[in-house]
Amino acid sequence: MNGRLAVALASCILVGGAAAAAPPAGQAKAAFERLTKLDGSWRSEGKDSAVHVTWRVIAGGAAVLETVSSADRTRVTSATVYSVEGDELVAHHFGEGAVAHPRLVLKAQEPTRLRFEVAPVDAPKAAHAAALLLVVKGDDVVTLEWTLAGGAKAGKRAVDLKREYLDTLK
C-alpha cells in the first residue's frame, strides 16, 4: 500500500510540475506582436563588419521575415521566418552556406528579451544556429545574439542594431 501511495504522489508531483512549466496561454502571440514592432530597417554600428537587418511583417500578418544583408546590401546572408505554430512561437533560420536549417522555439521571454532554442529533437547534426537571444533595448536599439553549434564557427555572435529612418526626417 505504501508503495502505491508513493507512486501516486510522485505522479501528482510530476504532473503538477509539468503543468507549472507550461508557458502561459497567449505567450507566443504576445511575443509575436513584439516582433511585429521591429518592422523596418536596422544597421549595425561597426564599420568594418557592418550589417543591415530588416524585419518585415508578411503574409497578411501571419509571419515576420528577418533578413541580414552584407554591408553593401548586395546579398542576403541569412533569413529567419518567425510565426506562431499552435501554442509556440517558432523561428526557421536559413544561413548562408549552412547545410542545416534549424527550427528554433521561444523558450523564455522577459519584457525586453526573447530567447529561442533548438529543440533537441530538431537539432541538426551539421553546424547550425542553436539559440537566438533578441534584446530590445529601446524603440530604436536591438541586440541579436546567435549561439552557433558544431563546425569551425561554433560560439556566440552578437550584433547591436539601430533603426534606420530611410524615408522620414527622423
Describe the protein:
- The protein is α+β, with helices and mostly antiparallel strands.
- The protein has a single domain, classed as Calycin beta-barrel core domain (Lipocalin, Beta Barrel).
- The protein is 18% helix and 48% strand.
- The protein has 2 helices and 10 strands; from the N terminus they run H-H-E-E-E-E-E-E-E-E-E-E.
- It has helices at 2-21, 27-36, and strands at residues 40-44, 52-58, 63-69, 76-85, 88-95, 103-110, 113-118, 128-138, 141-149, 155-164.
- The chain has a 10-stranded antiparallel β-barrel with strand order 1-2-3-4-5-6-7-8-9-10.
- A hairpin with a 2-residue loop joins strand 6 and strand 7 (113-118).
- The chain starts with a helix and ends in a 6-residue tail after the last strand.
Protein topology:
Elements lengths: L1 H20 L5 H10 L3 E5 L7 E7 L4 E7 L6 E10 L2 E8 L7 E8 L2 E6 L9 E11 L2 E9 L5 E10 L6
Antiparallel strand pairs: 1-2, 1-10, 2-3, 3-4, 4-5, 5-6, 6-7, 7-8, 8-9, 9-10
Q: Within the largest sheet, what's the order of strands? A: 1-2-3-4-5-6-7-8-9-10
Biggest beta sheet attributes: 10 strands, antiparallel, barrel
Rg over CA atoms: 19 Å
Q: What series of H and E elements makes up the topology?
A: HHEEEEEEEEEE
Which segments are poorly predicted (pLDDT under 50) over 5 or more consecutive residues?
1-22
The class by helix and strand makeup works out as alpha+beta
Approximately how much beta-strand content do the residues carry? over 45%
Count of separate DSSP helical elements? 2
CATH superfamily: Calycin beta-barrel core domain
Termini distance? 74 Å
What's the overall geometry?
Answer: globular
